[in-house]
């Protein structure tokens, strides 16, 4: 089951976020993220059965920023904190910044590090990435390729 939410930038460019059922992500239906990580689905936290994912567009991989889903921003990001780290599956860290657009309460994007993260992780158009936050390290955003 795939539930698609549509978000558009001011210029009219569509940002596509999908919430994908874990049955589609693994053969055994188990995508447990461990005790240290929460994932976002809809308006609440989930126990690992669903994860917030994003299919990367050409704009996402070529630009120096990535817009974040407002549910993720609202639940996990601190509006007073600007500096974060992005990590991948190997826990390597890339420094980045979160910028708040000011258009809506929780509209923000990753910048100053996103482009390097894409390049170093060989992310391309069509890749699906998953967002996770570490409960222990509030300034770390984990992004993994699904």
TrEMBL record:
Domain of life: Eukaryota
GO CC list: nucleus
Keyword Membrane part of the UniProt annotation: no
Keywords per UniProt: DNA-binding, Nucleus, Repeat, Transcription, Transcription regulation
UniProt subcellular location: Nucleus
Gene3D superfamilies in UniProt: DNA-binding pseudobarrel domain (2.40.330.10)
Keyword Transcription annotated: yes
CDD domains: B3_DNA (cd10017)
Secretion signal, residue range per the UniProt entry: none
Domain TF-B3: 51-146
Entry's Gene Ontology molecular function annotations: DNA binding
PANTHER family assigned: B3 DOMAIN-CONTAINING PROTEIN REM-LIKE 3-RELATED, B3 DOMAIN-CONTAINING PROTEIN REM14-RELATED
Name used for this protein in its record: TF-B3 domain-containing protein
Organism: Vigna unguiculata
């Amino acid at each position: 089951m795939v539930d698609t939410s549509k978000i558009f930038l001011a210029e009219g460019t569509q940002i596509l976020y999908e919430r994908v059922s874990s049955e589609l992500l693994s053969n055994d239906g188990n995508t447990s993220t461990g005790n240290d990580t929460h994932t976002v689905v809809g308006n609440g936290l989930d126990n690992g059965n669903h994860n917030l994912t994003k299919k990367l567009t050409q704009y996402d991989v070529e630009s120096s920023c990535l817009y974040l889903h407002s549910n993720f921003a609202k639940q996990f990001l601190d509006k007073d904190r600007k500096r974060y780290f992005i990590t991948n599956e190997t826990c390597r860290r890339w420094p980045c910044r979160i910028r708040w657009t000011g258009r809506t309460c929780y509209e923000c994007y990753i910048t100053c590090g996103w482009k390097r993260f894409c390049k170093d992780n060989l992310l391309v158009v069509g890749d699906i990435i998953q967002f996770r936050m570490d409960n222990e390290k509030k300034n770390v955003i984990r992004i993994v390729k699904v």
